[in-house]
Amino acid sequence: MRYLMTSKATDTAPNENLYVEMGKFIEELTAAGVLLATGGLAPDGVRVTSSGDEITVTDGPFTETKEAVAGFALVEVRSKEEAIELTRRFRAIVGDGESVIQQVFGP
User: Can you tell me which family this protein belongs to (predicted)?
Assistant: First the structure.
């Protein structure tokens, strides 16, 4: 089962220990074959919407920084519970904030 784990931006500046601990966590998940992709996301973007035959393109940013998704990890695990446990470990490293886990369907 694949899960997309996203994290919202926070006002807390990362410290050196965060980078060290996150590096270890990413190495562990990569070595286990669980981590498929990870990355940070720019706060701006482009929104493309459609209504009938009309396509509208709008430059971002669109939400308050505290609501914007700042990063993601795509993992392949055996269960939703395993995805939750990985996210708990992630939150323990990065501290206060919010993450969302969504199952990814398809090949």
Answer: Belongs to the YciI family.
Whose tokens are 């939703």? That residue is 80
pLDDT tens, position by position, 11-70: 777 788 888 999 999 999 999 999 999 998 887 788 899 999 999 998 877 666 666 788
- 19 contacts: CB under 8 Å, gap ≥ 6: none
| Nearest of 102, 38, 30 to residue 73 by alpha carbon | 38
**Which residues pair with residue 71 across a beta bridge?**
7, 40
The domain covering 2-104 belongs, at the CATH homologous superfamily level, to: Dimeric alpha+beta barrel (3.30.70.1060)
Backbone phi, then psi, for 19, in 5-degree steps?
-65, -40
Contact call for residues 41 and 69 (beta carbons, < 8 A): yes
> Domain extents for the chain?
2-104
Amino acid at the residue 16: E
